[in-house]
Design brief:
Length: about 325
């Protein structure tokens, strides 16, 4: 009683929930309220946040300038959480200074769920030339996991465009693409980078409890070759400067498939490595507490150890190492 109830902003880097506060007490100053709230008839003595009522801060719009179009590749599986997918899409609609077209690869989604998804996508307010591009993929007993196929085929389906990526359970901040587009226009490079937070989310209660600057290492091509420092939604491509027909992939690659892709795209001289020095954080790489996820974004140490020792992960490591050897050989050949 006597408290206003606020919506919970999911794409505001300054906002985290105070998981220890009673009944979700809002742990931000009065002036940082979302503006979407229910107030009691009695005098308000404070504000609380409702995690079940998410909202998104809109990026600044420039009157009369629609901006460039960005096609964003998203992969979704029948076991995926539809609520998280919608949150990711809403973070794209909130982008400043551009128009965003989602290019969604969907694996093994049966009817009527597939038709329900298409209707839900059409109900969102996309720009006229940004209607969602949705492709359905179907696994087989021999190929039960199509994440690598969807990543590469949806990139090709996006066509010549500015192209970004977003896992369906992650979030971009409102100025993410405006920041990256400005760098691509200024540098003329084929790719540029932001940074993303390692964000801890209580999956059961929907609380954002921490944002840590873990993915702030790496400043150069050499650093990237040594260790991947670019989560898939931390960079933006200009595919008009790329020959996507030369990119190879394994259709059964379950881990580090994005690193295998980006190793074939980024180069010493055509990629904007200087952008990494800006340390501009553009989104959340969510790690879910209490999740049974089979991705690398696993917070439980024991589950992560099991994942890293699995045959599928070891095979991915071998493939990455072989690709790096081929890249090194090509660079050496150019010098001789």
């Amino acid at each position: 009683p006597h408290h206003g109830i606020c919506a919970s902003p999911l794409n505001d880097p300054a906002f985290v929930h105070d998981a220890g506060a009673p009944a979700g007490q809002l742990a931000v100053p009065y002036h940082r309220r979302t503006g979407m709230e229910l107030e009691p008839a009695d005098p308000v003595v404070g504000y609380k946040v409702c995690p079940e009522a998410p909202c998104f801060r809109m990026g600044k719009r420039h009157e009369g300038a629609a901006g460039d179009r960005v096609s964003t590749v998203i992969r979704y599986h029948e076991r995926g959480n539809r609520r998280l997918l919608v949150n990711a899409l809403l973070s794209l609609l909130a982008q400043a200074g551009c128009r965003v077209r989602p290019c969604i690869g969907v694996q093994d989604l049966p009817e009527p769920a597939a038709s329900d998804l298409l209707r839900a996508l059409e109900a969102l307010p996309w720009a006229e030339d940004c209607r969602p591009l949705v492709c359905f993929f179907h696994s087989t007993p021999e190929r039960p996991d199509l994440r690598s196929v969807m990543l590469n085929e949806m990139l090709r389906a996006a066509g010549p465009d500015y192209v970004g990526f977003l896992d369906y359970d992650d979030i971009l901040f409102p100025d993410a693409y405006a920041t990256l587009l400005a760098r691509l226009r200024m540098t003329g490079m084929n790719a540029t980078f932001g940074r993303v937070y390692s964000t801890t989310v209580d999956e059961t209660r929907g609380l954002i409890t921490r944002r840590d600057q873990i993915y702030d290492y790496g400043r150069s091509y050499e650093n990237f070759i040594a260790r991947n420092h670019a989560p898939v939604h931390s960079f933006l491509l200009d595919t008009r400067k790329l020959d996507l027909s030369k990119i190879e992939y394994f259709d059964d690659m379950k881990y580090m498939e994005d690193y295998y892709l980006s190793l074939q795209i980024f180069s010493p001289n055509q990629t904007d490595w200087q952008s990494l020095n800006l340390n501009k954080f553009i989104g959340d790489y969510n790690h879910f507490v209490g999740s049974s996820s089979d991705t690398l974004a696993v917070s439980d140490p024991e589950k992560r150890r099991d994942l890293l020792s699995s045959p599928e992960y070891r095979l991915s490591e071998v493939r990455i190492a072989e690709l790096k050897q081929r890249i090194a050989a090509k660079h050496l050949a150019r010098l001789t």
